[in-house]
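Data availability (excerpt). All sequences and predicted C-alpha cell strings are deposited with the supplementary files. A representative entry, Corrinoid adenosyltransferase MMAB, is shown inline so that the format can be inspected without opening the archive.
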Amino acid sequence: MTMYLGAFRATLRRTGNCAFSTGTRVLLAGRPKIYTKTGDKGTSALFTGERRPKDDVVFDALGTNDELSSSIGLAREFCLDQGEGLNGMIGQLEQIQCLLQDIGSNIATPRDSATAPRLARTEFDSDGQHVQDLETWIDTMDQELPPLTSFILPSGGKAAAALHIARSVSRRTERRVVPLAQEQRVDKSVAVYLNRLSDYLFTCGRYAAMKAGRQEAVYKKPRAPRVKKNSSIATASEEE
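C-alpha cell line:
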C-alpha cells in the first residue's frame, strides 16, 4: 500500500491533476487511475526514485510487510465481531497498521543511499516508544492470562486463530527485514519492533481466546498406532 500511495502521488504530479496546499487540504481537478503501467516491465520505484526489479529483496520485505498489515486487518475484523472485552485491542491493532505503513516507508528508503532529508522523514521509532507501547500492552494482558504450562496450538475462536496467523506473518516479515537491517539498509528499530510485535500478537491470541471463553488447544505428543501381535502372520495365512 505504501508503494501504491507513492505511485498515486507520482501520477498526480505527472498528469497535473492536483494542487497541494498547506495543512490537510488537497485539491483535485480530476480523478487519476489507480494503475500507472510503469511496472509492466517488472520493475518498481523506491522512494528515492531508484527503480529495481520487483523480485528485489527490498520489495520482498515491502510485500511481506503489506501481508502483515492485511492479516492484522482481518484479525481486527474478527475481534470486532467478537466484541466482548476487546475494545482496547481493536484500537491498538489499528494503530499498529498505521505504524506498518511507516515501516514500509522506512524499507522503501534505503538508509545507505537516500538523502539526509528523506532519511529524517522516514526514520522509525528512534526513541523506542512504539516498542515500549507493545511491551506495556503485553504486560497488561498477561496479568489476566493463566500462566503457560504447555505449548499451545493456534485455536480459541476465529479472532484468536486469526491473531495467531498475524503472529506468524509478523515473524516472516521480521525474517525479510533482518538481512536489510544487518546491512544498514533499514533502521534496526524496524527489526526490533517486528520482533516485539509477534510477541504482542501471540498474547493477543491468548487474550481473545480467554475473552471468548474458549479453551486453547495444547500440544499432545501423538501416540504411535499399536500393532497387534501375530497380525502379520495372520495376514500371511489368510493370503495363502
